[in-house]
Amino acid sequence: MAEKIAAVESLLSCFVCSETFRDPVTLSCSHSFCSSCLQKFWEQTKNKNCPICKRRSSSDYPPVNFALKELADSFAGRQKPESSERMKETKEEVVCDKHPEETKLFCEDEQRAVCPVCEFSLHQTHKVVPVEQAVRDLKEQLRSDLKSLQDKRDKYKQVEDTYNEMSQHVKKQLLSTETQIRAEFNKLHQFLKEEEESRLAALREEEEQKGKTLSREMKRIQQQMSSLSDSISAVEEELQKQQVSFLSSYKDTQSRARAQSSLSDPQLVSGALIDVAKHLGNLSFRVWEKMKDKVHFSPVILDPNTANGWLDLSDDLTSVRHGNTWQKLPDNPERYTKYSELLGSEGFSSGKHSWEVEVGDLLWIVGLAKESAEMYAEVASPKYGYWCLSHRDGKYTNSDGKTVTVQKSLQRIRVQLDYDRGEVSFYNSEDMTHIYTHRDTFTEKLLPYFYVGESDIKVCQSEIWLLTSE
After folding, report:
1. Which residues form the B30.2/SPRY domain (predicted)?
2. Are residues 276 and 316 in the same domain?
3. 324 and 357 inside one domain
4. Degrees (nearest 5) of the Cα angle 309, 310, 314?
5. Nearest-CA neighbor of 36 among 24, 46, 47?
6. Of 400, 370, 398, whose CA–CA distance to 386 is shortest?
7. Which structural domain, as residue segments, surrounds residue 68?
8. Confidence band of 463 (pLDDT split at 50, 70, 90)
9. Confidence band for 45, pLDDT divided at 50, 70 and 90
10. What would the pLDDT profile of 404-414 be if each residue is shown by its tens digit?
11. 72: domain CATH number?
12. How many domains is the chain built from?
């Protein structure tokens, strides 16, 4: 029996102080210590390692192991007898020392239990009810308060979950956007590499042509020099002859010499050097001009952070389609979650602007929305902050819900905003025929707006007007 007690005592003893546990805590390595002993040990060693296995603790303040605490307290005789606790509770329920019987009345005005013998006369003008009723009513109120707290906690938990989703989504956005940035720059690098090779090839080709020209001219000069050298040698030889021999042969030599002397002097050809200015002059500008033909500008960039989960955006964020699968996206405040809608990434607060949109034959809405537009509105109308052109079942309607007539089915629409004059206009881009203009007073930023109902929408390249209002 003594051995068993000793074994239990060993299991319930702290490794640091060798005493029975007081407020024991258990580390992730499963070793337990008195809470105060562990903290003192960590202060002395200046680390958070387990005193036994030296493994680092995952928590700076590990929670108390209440099961182990109850067992240790019981073993050490530190628990209070149940009868004492019960007596204390019973004593607390006694309201009056003179009349120790259990109280049965509760004063709602003073919000306390009262003695029915010596205090009753003091509460005749108060509202006094039986304790059971007061407890029932107050517990009901407390349950209501508890429900309110639980609901509030659930809302905080919901927001916490959304932030967790947003955190994970941000990491995905980082990887995806980084990949696309690298891809775009790789295209630019490839273009510059090819342009560099082309420019160097043109330089080498010119060098080869100029080299051939110089070689040809040098060969001709060398031939002339050789002929002149032969004539010089012949004249020098003629001058060395005896008189009779000289007189019989000098005439031919003299004619040959005079014929070569009458030739024009040699001239250097122009343009024999490489045209360095042609290759280097405004090089960066000319490459940039050529690069402009390789890149495209879109006046409106779609904002993926506002896109509904049914929508699929292109990598360059200039086109969108209604997908077949729902994408799990964070429920951030900017996102349209009820309908398949999205906004442009930048808005307008002044001036004139225009862009063109390619649309399909199914349900779509294009136009503008103010920054504070009602996101769950049933209708895209000015009442809710929208100025749009809509298409459904071959019918076109304006912002006021009225039908507008078009000569033929619209495939490409120009949206035109004159913010200062308060005008939003729509045109058929194919022949620039006017569809309709909505006039209003704008007081806040307007953003391009799109509703995509199982139809593709693409923002087309168009000029952005940088004109002041008339």
Report:
1. 280-466
2. no
3. yes
4. 90
5. 24
6. 370
7. 1-76
8. very low
9. confident
10. 988 888 889 99
11. 3.30.40.10
12. 3
| DSSP code for 49 | B
User: Based on the domain organization, do 415 and 283 belong to the same domain?
Assistant: no
Same domain, 223 and 275: yes
The C-alpha atoms of residue 121 and residue 127 are separated, in whole angstroms, by 12
**Amino acid type, 50:** C
CA–CA separation, 69 and 36 (whole Å): 13
pLDDT in tens, 241-263: 888 888 888 888 888 888 888 88
Phi, psi of 72 (to 5 degrees): -65, -45
- For the record, the structure tokens of 137 come out as 């009513």
* Helical packing angle, 283-292 and 131-239, nearest 10°: 130
Same domain flag for 349 and 285 = no
Close Cβ partners of 109 (under 8 Å, ≥ 6 residues apart): 123, 126, 127
DSSP codes of every residue in 278-322: HHHTTHHHHHHHHHHTT----S--B-GGG--TTEEE-TTSSEEEE
Q: Which two tokens stand for residue 295?
A: 């890149």
- The one-letter amino acid code at 239 reads L
Q: Which helix (H) or strand (E) holds 37?
A: helix 35-45
Nearest by Cα to 159 from 374, 334, 332: 332
For residue 214, what are its two tokens? 């110089």
User: How far apart, in whole angstroms, are the C-alpha atoms of residue 28 and residue 279?
Assistant: 71
> Residues for the chain: how many in total?
470
Please write the tens of the pLDDT for every residue from 294-324.
Answer: 788 888 999 999 999 999 998 889 889 888 8
Element (H, E) at 180: helix 131-239
pLDDT digits (tens, 9 = 90+) for 76-94: 776 544 444 444 444 445 5
DSSP helix/strand/coil, 138: helix
At 34 the three-state DSSP class reads: strand
Any residues with CB less than 8 A from the CB of 401 and at least 6 apart, and which? Answer: 379, 381
Residue 348 near residue 417 (C-beta atoms within 8 A) = yes
The pLDDT tens digits of the residues spanning 141-200 come to: 888 989 999 999 999 999 999 999 999 999 999 999 999 999 999 999 999 999 999 999
